[in-house]
Amino acid sequence: MKLNLPEELDFIRAGRLPQKTTNERLDGKVCIITGATSGVGYEAAKELALAGASIVTINRNKEKSERLSIEIEKISGLKPKYFIADFSDLIQVRIATEEILHDYQKIDVLINNAGVHMTTRQLTKEGHEMAFCVNHLAPFLITSMLLKRMVESAPSRIIQINSEGHRFNGLDINDLIWENRRYKGIKGYGASKTAQLMTVWELHELLQNKGVSIIAMHPGAVKSNIGTNNGKLYNLYSKYLIQPLLKEAKISGEAIYYLAASKEMEGISGKFYNLTNEEIPAKHARDRELGKKIFQISKKLTNLDKEDVYEV
Ligand SMILES: NC(=O)c1ccc[n+]([C@@H]2O[C@H](COP(=O)([O-])OP(=O)(O)OC[C@H]3O[C@@H](n4cnc5c(N)ncnc54)[C@H](OP(=O)(O)O)[C@@H]3O)[C@@H](O)[C@H]2O)c1
Question: Which atom number of ligand 1 is nearest to the Cα of residue 193?
Answer without folding.
Answer: 47
